[in-house]
C-alpha cells in the first residue's frame, strides 16, 4: 500500500529505475593486424534481476561468440531475448555467409522481434543491442529500439581503429519506442 508520502516517493523512484534500468555491460571485440580476433563480454547482469538468474553474457553463442575464421559478435540488453535466438552465434554464421556486420545484427533484431510476432506493444518493454566485427575489421551494430536515452543520445557504440576513437550510431530496427 502506498499509504505514506515516504512510500509514494519510493514508488516513483522504483518506477523510474525499472523504466530506465542502470546499464554497464560491455561487449568488446577486437581484431589485430594479423587478423586474429578476440572478444569479451563483462556484466553484473540485468538490473533488478531475480536471484540465481543467468543472463546471456556468460553464455558462449549468446552474449559472445568468436570464430577466428570469420569474426565475432556480442550483445547487451535483455539477455533472455538473446539466448532464445543464440544471437552471437547466429550473427557470426550470417557473416560467414557474407553478410556485413550491421545487416547481420539487424537480422538478429528481426529474429527477436519475430519471437513476439512483431508485436510492438510487447517489444516496447525492453531493448537489446547487437555488435559485430569481421576478420577484415568491418564492424557494425543494431539495436531493437533507436529511442534516445534520457541524455538525448541515440544508441551508439565505441570504435577504436588504432588511431582514434569514435562513437558510431547503432542501426535501429524500430525508430522509437515512443
Ligand atoms: N545482457 C545482460 C543480461 O541479460 C545485461 C546487460 O546487458 O546489461 O544479463
End-to-end Cα distance: 30 Å
Strand order of the largest sheet: 3-4-5-6-9
- The H/E string reads HEEEEHHHHEEEEE
Evaluate the radius of gyration. Answer: 17 Å
What CATH first level of the domain at 59-178 would be assigned?
Alpha Beta
Q: Main sheet, how many strands, which sense, barrel?
A: 5 strands, mixed
Low-confidence stretches: none
What's the number of extended β-strand segments? Answer: 9
Look at the helices and sheets and give the structural class.
alpha+beta
Please state the second-level CATH architecture of the domain at 59-178: 4-Layer Sandwich
Helix fraction by DSSP (H/I, runs of at least 4): 25-40%
Bound compounds: aspartic acid
Here the CATH topology of the domain at 59-178 equals Glutamine Phosphoribosylpyrophosphate, subunit 1, domain 1
Number of helical regions:
5
Bulk shape: elongated
Name the CATH superfamily classification of the domain at 59-178: (Glycosyl)asparaginase
Instruction: Tell me the fraction of residues in β-strands, as a range.
Output: 25-35%
Q: Estimate the mean pLDDT confidence.
A: 93
Amino acid at each position: 500500500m502506498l499509504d505514506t508520502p515516504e512510500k509514494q516517493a519510493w514508488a516513483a523512484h522504483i518506477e523510474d529505475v525499472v523504466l530506465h534500468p542502470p546499464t554497464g555491460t560491455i561487449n568488446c571485440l577486437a581484431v589485430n593486424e594479423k587478423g586474429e580476433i578476440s572478444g569479451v563480454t563483462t556484466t553484473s547482469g540485468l538490473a533488478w534481476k531475480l536471484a540465481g538468474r543467468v543472463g546471456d553474457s556468460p553464455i558462449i553463442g549468446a552474449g559472445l561468440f568468436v570464430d577466428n575464421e570469420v569474426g565475432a559478435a556480442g550483445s547487451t540488453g535483455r539477455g533472455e531475448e538473446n539466448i532464445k535466438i543464440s544471437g552471437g552465434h547466429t550473427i557470426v554464421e550470417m557473416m560467414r555467409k557474407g553478410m556485413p556486420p550491421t545487416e547481420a545484427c539487424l537480422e538478429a533484431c528481426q529474429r527477436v522481434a519475430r519471437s513476439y510476432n512483431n508485436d510492438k506493444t510487447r517489444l516496447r518493454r525492453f531493448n537489446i543491442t547487437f555488435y559485430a566485427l569481421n576478420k577484415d575489421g568491418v564492424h557494425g551494430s543494431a539495436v531493437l529500439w533507436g529511442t534516445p536515452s534520457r541524455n538525448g543520445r541515440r544508441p551508439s557504440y565505441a570504435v577504436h581503429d588504432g588511431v582514434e576513437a569514435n562513437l558510431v550510431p547503432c542501426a535501429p530496427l524500430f525508430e522509437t519506442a515512443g
